[in-house]
Structure formats: structure tokens, C-alpha cells
Write a structure and sequence with these properties.
This protein is α+β, with helices and mostly antiparallel strands. About 40% of the residues lie in helices and about 15% in strands. A hairpin with a 2-residue loop joins strand 18 (about 360-365) and strand 19 (about 370-375). The chain is elongated and about 180 Å long.
Length: about 1200
């Protein structure tokens, strides 16, 4: 039914024992069924009340206190008007026939309307008289048949209600019970009214039946009747203060037919039918005394001062028609009786209520149970007792704050649930009790609602209070479960769950923010580019395979969304509530509306932000861990999570005075992520990052209720529309965004995210902007573990969807190294190198993360396969750092193709001449390419000669090294080692000279003449500046005497002079080594280069000749001590290379024999040894000769003579 949702009045509990829920948070809501029923035919009477209501198949029947039965027909709304409501037109006004009651009885009017749709009949109880009519037009049937002095008409089998004709029992017609003054008449209604039997039970006023078991009540107590076997089981008294009647043993079955009234076993009524399993808990045993149970419950109740509320009178004793309540009498007479307000102010003595003033109330929540209400007085609490068909208690009792006037039950197990909603396979069971409740402004009448299917383990039961809207609080409220039902839907669910397009800003907002003076200067220059990128992306996206959008696409989408939401918003209503002239449906309040109402209450009533947050978390925890049982429930949970997430976020953005705790922040982040709310909606609420939101022409579609909440915040004063700079966001907000967006990035690739492309482009751009802003405060240098900078690296390394926007953002923050990592994520090698080049050349890079950039470039070039890039940046690096740059061209294990040495040398000569020498050093010393030795020597000579020629200081330093070395006392290192040990760290000429000495002294072939000419050219500035070099050249030219003279007299390097002799003059600084195996040639000119011709070991004669020359140089030393010492050592250690006669001929006669005694002793010993060896050798030769002659003679004898002719 398309009707508007009524708003109930809100009341508070004056005692505070049971806090009352505001309207919308309870399990039921009231929706208008019929407003302002025309009770009076001419509209002049206001004292007419609604007594009863029935509804079936669009026909509404209203019984009034004026003894009228109003028949209305429902006209459905226009199908094109989806928000329209049905209307009712009056079909007839009927005054049912009735017998005039006795003079002292009242005319209550139409008391009951019993519809029997299976036989098309209706039974109307009016002024204690039952008449019969046809359905639906209410034409009289059965002639003038009437049943007088009837207190109640009902007793239809609730088990057959709602069954199809084929599912019903084979007997025709419907069996009803008529409660007469002295008996209960069982009647079958079909084509006529046929009495079946009479049950001897006097004064019954109500009856409900399940199969053959009827639960009835008279003016004092309840009982169970077995109508087939005429058995009765007396139950508890209606008033617990009433003494049991004699002969009524509670719980004991007895015959009630004829005169046999003996007691039977309490379960005798069950012997005629299968025993049903009790649905209640096992703790309630059959042997429990109902009387004791009632008494105990009564003792637990506290007596309250009775209020001056008129109680509902019990119906009269048999023979006298029951009287109406005092309120009805007041409304009818409108005489001198004071009104409710006067009654409320009238004093009442505090006396114990008397028995016999309570109306019996019976409902059947399940096919196996009856719910009976007992109490002590109309103003005292009532107790609801559950009994099964054997009269045994089945469930824990329930308590009503006051004794109800009417009750109705609703739930999945009732005879017909009052409202069916698509909330799951099982509905909770509720009992609705009409009663009055005292408030500060007087007594209010409404409905107390609570669960009837609780197991008693939940502690204090939750109760809800629901008052009818637009009615006087002093008017009684009626409630009834109708025979027919009405399909309805909740427009509120449609409004909340229908997805609507969310537009966070208009097309001009970006321009406004860009031109705003407060815009961040780092990004102001890039906003225009971002705007163009947005337009380009929208054009590209919208022009994909689906083509351009039709003109009415949004209206079509809205219609589709509404249809989908309306399919979930349906419900079925069967409970009717009335008060005054208005009638409502009591409809199950969907969970989504209940939770949303709690949200509204929390937001509008909470004065403190911390209190509001706690209540929001409480609402979420109410269904935390609960699995959705239906599609609506699944969407309900998603909707509530999303709306709570938005509310918490807005509270967080305003929480300067009451900041969020860490646990609250984590909970909010979890809610926003798990709710699957489009992260662009979240970002659109935060001024600093909302400009990163990307949407196409299709826009963002979110729940209507969430959209309204977000738009309310954007339109509020708390939203700073003028602040669009990232640096205006506080640190807690930035860190929240960092965690939230990082969690969303983990969902990339799930495939179930609408507009995935736009969502993750937005997420990546916003997260990058947040991390760049946070990282500004980090210490310069590489990232530390678990730092913001490490997260920034991970973001760009794993790739971002918004590549162009990322470039702009990173450039605006001057983070070139991060930009290079972004390029690396896309394998853009040239851009990586270009960015590093910018950093190395001094362009601003605030992060300062590129440590030892030139070395990083060198290592990176070894890992790429592009020879062109290697060449380009190798030349660039060789010009900046020649030593490092040449390593790029010398790399053997790089991925790029290797360069030919000749090609590299030529390339370096043309574009990086300062790096040629270093590359040649690598080729010669590192690779053994001796073909470049001569060229490298030339470079070294140029450096050394130019330095000595142009620098007097350099010449003095060289000269001082000779002097210092000569002044050293033996043992001392070689002169070359002396130069190495004293080499300055940054003197290129010094190190070049060391390398020159190494090459000159090596086993290489080079142009001696050119080198000697270059060295000789220094004589114009100073003599003998390059003594070691000259010595090596003399050795190469076989000028050994000159070489030894320079070693001994100019250098004083006696050990090197001795080594020179041992090596045969081949070198002075390297020992002889046999040629090593060389790698394959790398140049077309041939292998490695030519070798020296005298690379073979020297002979002893060559060594002896050099030693004799060295002896002559030692004898010419100016220092007599050096002369004697060095000569003695030479002769002693190397005497075997000298002839004794030659030595004695050159030794001065003035020297003591002791100076050469060692040499002479060794020489004489050697002579003796040689003489002895000669003698032994001669003897051995003679023996060998004799042996040979002997062997010859023996062989001749063996052969004998031979004759030759």
C-alpha cells in the first residue's frame, strides 16, 4: 500500500526504569490505513468511537459505538504515481439487527466482526446479538437468524487460517464458537448456520481455538476445552488475588458434558490426539503449579499507588449483558462525569485493588501455545503466561508495565504474521499491548512492544513504546490482527537505498579553487594541467565501446535504481491500530529504518562529540559479526556502515576540541574501508584532497541516504570551501588519509569495485599527494624502514594509475629522486637517467635521497641493454668524473653490447679527452692490452714533463726526494717504493710518474727514442730530474754502466743496483716473470702488442760482467764508509760472480785484508772445492773408461773371429 509513514509522538519514561525508544527505532511503525473515518453520518457527532476493525481483499469494515458497521472499498492509486496513496470510498453504512438489552445494560455498538472468507460469510456481534451477512457486500443471509445474549463470537480453528480450500479438512463449512451466557454453542457456518453441540461452560467472554483445543475465559479464570470430547482443564485465575472457585482444580482435566463431572488425569485431553512437543525450554516442567507460578510472580511485583484511570470492567455475570468500560460510558453519556484530566487530578486512596476487575486476554503465538494475561489490578503490572495445549507452562513469563487493554502477537510462528517483510527467513516474535502510561503531562495511551520469544537469558527485556500520531494522548488505543493483509512498501527505504549520482563539486569549482589565492603555490601551476587531463580522460572514457551517453541516460538510471530499491522495500501488514477516528497499519519496522532512526537521534540529540561517537560505534556493534540473511539485510549493513563512516569522518574533521583516540581512529578507518563506500566520496569531504577526485560523465552513484549526509556536510559551515591546499590539513587527518588510502590500494584488482579505473586513479593521486606532504618533514637522505618515505617509495615502485598526475605532483614538491622511481616503475630508462642527471647537475631535490649519484648512474648503466643510452650517459659521466666514466665503457658484464676499445678511445678523444688516459689505464693495467702501452706512456710523460717544466715547486720536490732517499740508512726500500709511500693523495703528476715507472720497467715494447727525447728536453730547466726513468732507458739500450752509475751515485739505491745486475739489466723495479697466458685479442691490430726481445733469463756471464761494473761504481763512492760497506757486502754475498784475481787487482792496497777476508775465504774454498771436484771427476772418468774397455773385450770374445772375403 502506497501510504506515508506516520510519525509517532515521543515520550520519556518518568520513572527511568525502562528508557523508551524514540519513534523509528522500535520494531514497529504506524502507517496510515484510513485517516479521519466518517464515523458520524452527518458529521455532527464526536462521541462515536471505533470499536473494531476488519480488512479483507481491499474491503475495510469498521464497527462503531453507534451500532453502525461501515463498509469501505479501497481504490488503488494511479500506477504512474509511485508515491500515491490508495483512497477509500464508503460502500455502505449498515446497522446490524440486535435484540434490545435489558434496561440496566448498555449498547456498546458493534462489538465484533468475524470474517469467514472460505464460506463467504461474516458474523457481526452488535449489542450482544450475532447476525450473519455475505461477503463482501454485507447482505443479510440465513433469513432472520440471530443469536441473542452472546458475549463473544469466534473460536475459528487458527490452524486452518490461511490454508487453501484443498488444504483444509474434508468437512464443509467453518466451525465457530458462540459464547452465550450459560453455554458455548458450537456452530458450523456454510450455506446455513447449523448448531453442532453445546459445551457446558457458562459466562465465557473470549475463545481461541487450535484444532479441537479451545482456550476460553469467563469473568474469573481461564480454561482449556476439548470440544470434541467435552473435557476441561481449569487454568489460572485472571486476577491472582481472586480465590479459585470450588471444584476447579488447576491443571486437572474433567468432563463437562452431562452430569459426569469427575476429575480425570491432567493429561487426559491429550490422549485423544498426538502429543505435541513443547516449544519452550525444558526447565519448565509440566508438574509446575500454575497457581504457584502466578503467586510467585505476583509477590515479586511492587504495589504502586493506583492512578485514577478508569479500569476496563469485566463483563457481567450470565443473564446480564456485559457492561462497557467506564470510559465508553463517559463518551456515550457525555454527562457530568469528569474527563481524564480531572480524573488524573482526583485523589485516590492507596488501597489494594479488588479482584474481578480485569479483562481476560488470550492470543496464540504458536500452533502449540496460548498466551494468557493475569494480574492484580488494571493499574498494576500484568503477567503473560505461556501454556501448551495440555495446560503446562512452556516459556518464561513476560511482564507488562500495566495490565493491557488489548494484546496482539506478531511473529513468524503466529497464526498469521501481522507483517511480512523480506528481512530474512525467521522473524522475531513480538507482543503488542495496548495500555496507558503516566507521563509528566498526564496519561498517554499507546502500545507497549516487547519480545515474546525470548529465552529469558538476556536479562532485562527491552521494551518499546509506540503512540499513534495526530491523536489525543487520552484516547484509548485499539489493536487487532486482521483476517486480510495488505502489501505495502517503505518509500523511506527507496529513498535511502536507491543509488543517486553524487556530485561533490560543480564543473566550475575546480576553476574557482585554482584561482583561489589560498591555493598551494606548489600545485597552483599544475591545476590547469590537471583540469585539462580530467577533461581529456572524461572524453576518452565516455567515448569507449559503449559510445556517447544518450540524453536521458541519468533519468533512466534513476528509474532503474528506484525499481531495484522498491523491490526490496516491500512488506505485508496485518495488524490494525486505531484511536479516535484514525486507523493505522502496525508494520514491522525494517532494520534499516530502525538503525537509521538511531543515527538521526544520535546526531540530533548528542551535545558532546565524544558521546555521539560512542553511540555511533554502539549502533555498528549491534550487528557486528552478524551474517546477512537476505539481500535487503546485506544492503542495510552496507548502508549503515557507509553512513556511520561519513558521520564519523565529519566528526573527525571537526574534532579539534575532542580528538579521536587511536582505537576510534582505527575503527573509523576499518568502517570506511569495509563498507566499500567509494573512496572518492570520502576524499570529496576533505578540502585538501578533494581536487584529486576523478569522475567521468557517468559520475559517482551511492546510496541516497549516504549522498544526503555527505551533501549536508559540504553545504555546512564546517566545510571549508576556500581551503584547497594540502598543507592546510592537520597531521592527524593526513595520517588518517595515508592509512585509509593505503588500505584501499590493497583492493586493487578485486574486480567487484564499480568505476575501478577512476577510483584507483583518484586513490593513487590522493595517496601520493598525502605522502609527499608528510614526507616534507622527514630527514633528508635514504628512506628508513617503516617510514613515510618508505611508503612513498613503495607506492611509486608498484606503479600508480594516475601517471601524468603523479608526474605533476612530484615535480611540484621538487622530489626528483621520487620522480625517477616513478619512471623506473614504467621501465622508462631514459627518463630515469635524465632525472638523475638533473639531480647530479644541481637541480633542486628536496629529499636528497640520491647518494653518490655518479656511482648510481654507473651501476645503473651496467644493468640496461640500450647501447645508445650507455654511450650517451657514459660520455656525460666521463666528462664529469673521468675515472668513473671510463668504467662504463670497460664493463664486461653489462647487459648492453660491449664497446670496441678502439671505438671508445676515439669517442673519448672527441667528446671526453680528459678521460682517455683513464680508459687507457684500464685497458693496459686492467685488461692487459699492451698495444696501448706506448700511448699511455705518452700521456704520463705529458703530465709529468709539463708539470716539471711549468712548476718550480714540483722540480724542487723531485730533487728533494733524491736527497732524502740518499740520506736514508740501509736497509731502505727501493726508490720506487719510497715514492709510493710518500705520494700525495691528490697529486696527479706524482701518481702518473709512478704509473710511468711501472710501464717503463715492465715487459713492454715502446719507443725509446721518443721517450728519451722528451726526458732530455727537461735539461733546459734542470738536470737529472727523471733519474729512475733514465736508468730504465739505459738498461733497455744496453747502457748498463750508465744505469749502474745513476743508481749508485745519483740515487744511492744500492739494493736496486744489485737487483739490476741479477736481472741482467732487464728492469730495476720488477722481477723477471715468464710470459702469462693472455686473453684473446680485442683489437684488429693483433695480440696485446709486441714484447721485448731480451725477455729470456740472463746468463751468468752477463750477470758477472754487470757485477764487475757495479764493483767499480762502489769503489768510486765518495763516502769511504759507504764504499767499504757496500763493497764488502757485494763481495761477500755475490762473490761467486767475481774472479779473485780481478777483485784483488782493483781493491786498493791500503785496504786491510780483513775487509775482503770473507770474500777471499769463500773464494779459496771455492777454488779448493773446484779442484777436488775436478780430481773426483777425472777419477770417475778413468773408471768409466776402464769399464767401457772391459765391456768391449767381453763382447769381442763372445762374437769370436769373423772372416771377411
Amino acid at each position: 500500500m502506497m501510504s506515508s509513514l506516520a510519525s509517532a509522538q515521543v515520550a520519556s519514561d518518568p520513572q527511568g526504569d525502562h528508557p523508551l525508544k524514540q519513534f523509528g527505532t522500535g520494531p514497529f511503525v504506524l502507517r496510515t490505513l484510513f485517516a479521519d473515518v466518517p464515523l458520524s453520518e452527518d458529521g455532527t457527532r464526536d462521541d462515536i468511537k471505533v470499536n473494531c476493525v476488519e480488512y479483507l481483499d481491499s474491503h475495510l469494515y469498521v464497527g462503531t459505538s453507534d451500532s453502525e458497521l461501515l463498509h469501505f472499498f479501497q481504490v488503488p492509486p494511479d500506477p504512474t504515481d509511485k508515491s500515491g496513496a490508495p483512497t477509500f470510498i464508503l460502500a455502505s453504512r449498515l446497522r446490524p439487527a440486535f435484540a434490545e438489552p435489558t434496561s440496566n445494560a448498555t449498547r456498546p455498538g458493534v462489538q465484533q466482526i468475524l470474517l469467514l472468507p472460505t464460506v463467504g460469510k461474516a458474523c457481526i456481534l452488535c449489542n450482544w446479538t450475532v447476525t450473519f451477512y455475505s461477503l463482501p457486500e454485507l447482505s443479510p443471509v440465513f433469513g432472520t437468524t440471530q443469536v441473542k445474549n452472546c458475549n463473544w463470537v469466534g473460536g475459528i480453528d487458527l490452524n486452518e487460517v490461511g490454508l487453501d480450500q484443498d488444504e483444509r479438512a474434508g468437512s464443509a463449512g467453518v466451525t465457530i464458537l458462540l459464547s452465550l451466557n450459560r453455554k458455548i454453542q458450537v456452530v458450523n457456518i456454510a450455506d446455513g448456520a447449523r448448531p453442532i453441540k453445546k459445551i457446558d461452560f457458562a459466562g465465557s467472554t473470549i475463545s481461541l481455538r487450535r484444532d479441537s483445543i479451545a482456550c476460553v475465559a469467563d469473568s474469573r479464570s481461564y480454561a482449556l476445552l476439548e470440544i470434541n470430547q467435552q473435557l476441561k482443564i481449569p487454568l489460572m485465575s485472571i486476577s491472582s488475588l481472586d480465590e479459585p472457585q470450588p471444584g476447579n482444580a488447576v491443571g486437572q482435566a474433567q468432563h463437562i458434558s452431562g452430569s459426569s463431572g469427575g476429575l480425570l488425569r491432567s493429561n487426559s485431553s491429550a490422549q485423544s490426539r498426538p502429543q505435541n512437543v513443547s516449544p519452550g525450554p525444558s526447565a519448565h516442567k509440566r508438574g509446575t503449579s500454575l497457581g504457584d507460578l502466578i503467586t510467585a510472580a505476583t509477590r515479586r511485583q511492587e504495589f504502586r499507588a493506583p492512578e485514577d484511570e478508569e479500569p476496563i470492567s469485566r463483563q457481567g455475570t450470565p443473564g446480564t449483558p456485559p457492561e462497557l468500560s467506564q470510559n465508553a460510558l463517559e463518551n456515550t453519556s457525555r454527562g457530568n462525569t469528569p474527563g481524564p484530566e480531572a480524573q488524573a487530578n482526583r485523589g485516590v486512596p492507596n488501597t489494594r485493588p479488588q479482584p474481578g476487575l480485569l479483562k481476560p486476554l488470550i492470543v496464540s503465538p504458536t500452533p502449540e501455545e496460548f498466551l494468557l494475561v493475569t494480574g492484580t489490578g488494571p493499574l498494576e503490572p500484568g503477567i503473560g503466561m505461556f501454556v501448551n495445549l495440555d495446560g503446562d507452562p512452556t516459556r518464561p513469563t513476560i511482564e507488562f508495565d500495566r495490565y493491557p487493554k488489548e494484546i496482539a502477537v506478531d511473529g513468524d510462528s503466529t497464526e498469521f504474521s501481522s507483517s511480512r517483510t523480506p528481512f530474512g527467513p525467521e522473524e522475531e516474535g513480538y507482543v503488542l499491548a495496548s495500555m496507558g502510561r503516566e507521563f509528566a503531562d498526564g496519561i498517554h495511551y499507546g502500545l507497549e512492544i516487547q519480545r515474546w520469544d525470548s529465552d529469558g537469558t538476556e536479562g532485562e527485556p527491552t521494551k518499546y513504546w509506540l503512540e499513534p500520531p495526530s491523536s489525543s494522548p487520552s484516547q484509548n488505543v485499539g489493536i487487532r490482527s486482521l483476517r486480510g493483509a495488505e502489501d505495502t512498501h517503505f518509500q523511506e527505504i527507496v529513498d535511502k537505498l536507491c543509488r543517486r549520482r553524487f556530485v561533490p563539486f560543480s564543473s566550475s569549482s575546480l576553476d574557482d579553487s585554482t584561482s583561489s589565492p589560498s591555493f598551494d603555490s606548489r600545485t597552483a601551476s599544475s591545476m590547469e594541467r590537471m583540469s585539462k587531463e580530467r577533461e581529456l580522460f572524461e572524453r576518452d572514457t565516455d567515448s569507449q565501446s559503449e559510445g556517447s551517453l544518450p540524453d536521458a541516460w541519468q533519468a533512466t538510471r534513476n528509474t532503474e535504481e528506484e525499481d531495484f530499491a522498491r523491490r526490496l522495500a516491500g512488506s505485508t501488514a496485518r495488524l490494525a491500530v486505531w484511536s479516535g477516528k484514525d486507523i493505522w497499519w502496525a508494520v514491522r519496522n525494517p532494520l534499516i529504518l530502525r538503525l537509521d532512526a538511531r543515527l538521526e537521534t544520535t546526531v540530533t540529540t548528542s551535545n558532546q562529540a565524544s558521546t555521539e561517537r560512542r553511540e555511533l560505534f554502539t549502533i555498528l556493534n549491534s550487528f557486528r559479526g552478524q551474517d546477512a540473511k537476505s539481500e535487503l539485510e546485506f544492503l542495510t549493513f552496507s548502508y549503515i556502515r557507509q553512513r556511520v563512516g561519513i558521520l564519523l569522518l565529519t566528526s573527525f574533521l571537526k574534532s579539534e576540541d575532542t580528538p579521536f583516540s587511536d582505537s576510534e581512529l582505527r575503527a573509523m578507518e576499518e568502517i570506511l574501508v569495509d563498507s566499500l563506500l567509494d573512496p572518492r566520496v570520502v576524499l570529496s569531504l576533505i578540502p585538501g584532497v578533494r581536487n584529486e577526485v576523478i569522475e567521468t560523465k557517468r559520475g559517482m552513484w551511492i546510496f541516497g541516504g549516504v549522498k544526503s549526509t555527505a551533501e549536508e556536510f559540504i553545504a555546512s559551515r564546517d566545510f571549508d570551501k576556500g581551503s584547497s591546499a594540502m598543507n592546510t590539513l592537520p597531521q592527524p587527518v593526513l595520517h588518517f588519509l595515508r592509512r585509509f588510502l593505503t588500505a584501499w590500494r590493497r583492493r586493487k584488482g578485486f574486480g567487484s569495485i564499480p568505476d575501478e579505473n577512476e577510483v584507483f586513479r583518484t586513490v593513487d593521486a590522493a595517496l601520493l599527494a598525502v605522502l609527499l606532504e608528510l614526507d616534507q618533514h622527514s630527514t633528508p637522505g635514504p628512506a628508513k624502514a617503516r617510514s613515510v618515505r618508505a611508503e612513498l617509495y613503495e607506492l611509486v615502485d608498484t606503479g600508480v594509475e594516475c601517471f601524468n598526475r603523479a608526474e605533476t605532483l612530484i615535480e611540484s614538491y621538487h622530489r626528483l629522486y621520487v620522480l625517477s622511481r616513478l619512471y623506473q616503475s614504467r621501465k622508462m630508462i631514459a627518463d630515469v637517467l635524465a632525472t638523475w642527471k638533473r639531480i647530479i647537475e644541481g637541480e633542486r631535490d628536496d629529499g636528497a635521497e640520491l647518494i653518490d649519484g655518479e656511482q648510481r648512474v654507473r651501476e645503473y648503466l651496467a644493468k640496461i641493454s640500450s647501447q645508445a643510452l650507455v654511450q650517451e650517459y657514459g660520455i656525460w659521466l666521463a666528462n664529469r668524473n673521468p675515472k668513473l666514466g671510463v668504467q662504463i665503457f670497460a664493463e664486461d658484464k653489462g647487459r648492453a653490447p660491449n664497446f670496441e676499445p678502439g671505438q671508445v678511445v676515439q669517442l673519448l678523444r672527441e667528446q671526453a679527452p680528459d678521460a682517455v688516459k683513464y680508459y687507457l689505464e684500464f685497458l693496459v693495467f686492467g685488461k692487459g692490452h699492451t698495444i696501448y702501452v706506448n700511448e699511455l706512456i705518452t700521456y704520463y710523460l705529458d703530465i709529468v714533463v709539463n708539470r716539471l717544466r711549468t712548476s718550480r715547486e714540483a722540480r724542487e720536490v723531485v730533487t728533494s726526494t733524491y736527497t732524502a732517499y740518499r740520506a736514508l740508512h740501509p736497509p731502505k726500500p727501493t726508490y720506487r717504493q719510497f715514492l709510493t709511500d710518500n705520494a700525495p693523495g691528490d697529486d696527479e703528476a706524482w701518481h702518473s710518474r709512478l704509473r710511468l715507472l711501472q710501464l717503463l720497467g715492465g715487459n713492454h715494447d715502446y719507443d725509446l727514442a721518443v721517450i728519451r727525447d722528451r726526458i732530455a728536453g727537461l735539461s733546459s730547466v734542470a738536470e737529472d730530474l727523471l733519474v729512475p726513468e733514465t736508468i730504465i732507458l739505459n738498461g733497455r739500450e744496453r747502457k748498463h754502466e750508465n744505469a749502474l752509475r745513476l743508481l749508485v751515485h745519483h740515487l744511492g739505491d744500492y739494493d736496486t743496483a744489485v737487483a739490476y745486475c741479477l736481472r741482467g739489466g732487464a728492469s730495476i723495479y720488477t722481477i723477471y716473470q715468464t710470459p702469462q697466458n693472455q686473453p684473446p685479442p680485442t683489437s684488429p691490430e693483433g695480440v696485446k702488442g709486441p714484447k721485448r726481445r731480451d725477455s729470456m733469463p740472463p746468463t751468468q756471464d752477463q750477470q758477472a760482467r754487470l757485477f764487475r761494473a757495479l764493483l767499480g761504481e762502489f769503489l768510486e763512492l765518495e763516502d769511504i764508509s759507504d764504499r767499504v760497506e757496500q763493497t764488502g757486502l757485494l763481495l761477500e754475498k755475490f762473490g761467486q760472480w767475481f774472479d779473485v784475481g780481478d777483485v784483488l787487482s782493483v781493491i786498493p792496497d791500503t785496504w786491510s785484508v780483513d775487509l775482503v777476508a770473507g770474500f777471499l775465504v769463500k773464494a779459496l774454498r771455492r777454488i779448493v772445492v773446484e779442484k777436488n771436484e775436478t780430481t773426483v771427476a777425472r777419477s770417475l772418468s778413468s773408471a768409466q773408461n776402464l769399464q767401457i774397455q772391459h765391456n768391449l773385450i767381453v763382447e769381442i770374445e763372445e762374437k769370436g773371429p769373423s772372416i771377411e772375403t
